[in-house]
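Please predict the structure of the following assembly.
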Amino acid sequence: MLYTFHLLTENPPMPDDSPSKRGGFRAGAGRKKGSSAYGETTRAIRVPESLIPEVTTMLAIRKRQFETVKSCSADVLVPAPRLNAVKIPLFIGKVAAGFPSPADDYIEKTLDLNDLLIKKPAATFFVRAEGESMLGAGIHPNDILIVDRSLKPVLGKIVICALNGELTVKRLKKLGGEIVLAAENPVYPDIHIRENSELVIWGVVTNVIHAV
Amino acid sequence: MLYTFHLLTENPPMPDDSPSKRGGFRAGAGRKKGSSAYGETTRAIRVPESLIPEVTTMLAIRKRQFETVKSCSADVLVPAPRLNAVKIPLFIGKVAAGFPSPADDYIEKTLDLNDLLIKKPAATFFVRAEGESMLGAGIHPNDILIVDRSLKPVLGKIVICALNGELTVKRLKKLGGEIVLAAENPVYPDIHIRENSELVIWGVVTNVIHAV
DNA sequence: CTAATTGAATGCTGTACACTTTTCATTTGT
DNA sequence: ACAAATGAAAAGTGTACAGCATTCAATTAG
């Protein structure tokens, strides 16, 4: 072990009587926490090579989502990781990892909001609604939308999508062979998708949590 | 740069006239390649903390699968990673990452065996069939089965499952409230699932590749 | 006064490396 | 002859760390 000695002052490594240099110790300096491409800290883990494309895809999606969210200043959340991790029955007893087996009948169940609202934790995320364009569908400002990105965005469903990089909630429709993102409020116009616009559907809204 | 000099013999680092010690250079010594928990080499990649439970689950599933496969000496494959990685349209143009958007209508398509047989590359794997218990379903020994583990194993489907750690292919049935793994060959008996047996359903067989 | 420049501080990132685990020819024991 | 013990070799594994990127107060210029 190697010891170095400092006088016990407030800023041990940098005496703040330095005369003419810029910089020096300054509160607030330095890169901010959570300034990675994902908006959160990362950790290095080892992955078998055949799984790397799959993981890389997940990472790219997460990164792209974070970019869009940042530019829209929207509020996107993901189910609490710890809770879900605990709840996944991994080859224990009669349930295959993540996929319910028919033998489920024999297992007693207790009702849990997570179980009720989140079918596929890995494919679920939450978005806080903004604006009043979907009032008719029961979606009020600041409501929390539960989104399943594994569901196919069929016509008639309410979807979360990024249109030219902007995040919106609309009902998916088709009018005369043209895709339409329909608002559910007469005050707001429907959005007709042109050939050259970039539409990315993130997932299908399955539930709305509204605070009275 | 540091240079050391060796006489150019067959085993430079170890002169093989060492008299009494054990070991020394020996061809074939050392840990074997692919002796990791996954049966293949791994690489360290950085993952945002909120995705770690999801990735960890994937790893545990892969590990558990490899263990079972090893103990059964079965032949399980996964779609070639490079090919799939290239094919995933990641937020480009009008297609959302991995999930087809309705705007697909406007994109020309070419037929590809991969597209035809593999709906979800990340959830698909291949198993080489053994035995003749499923001849009636057109599954011969050494056939390659295409398995989708994202499909729900409903009654009547042919599934890959691990019963008490042993890998089998059977048709899923129910007789008098009891789950039955039914063979498709009168010579072989059906398997009735008891309360205390560990049944893990890996996925649903979607196609069979048979060599004439 | 306002805007541009500067450089220290601090978090992020990839990967090198120390340590562990596995394997097997050789040695040693019976 | 056979079996157990041994230790070097080689691959696997986690993580520390050097270098990179970002931020912002102090400084300088206009």
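The radius of gyration of chain B is 24 Å. The helical segments of chain B are 52-72, 81-87, 113-117.
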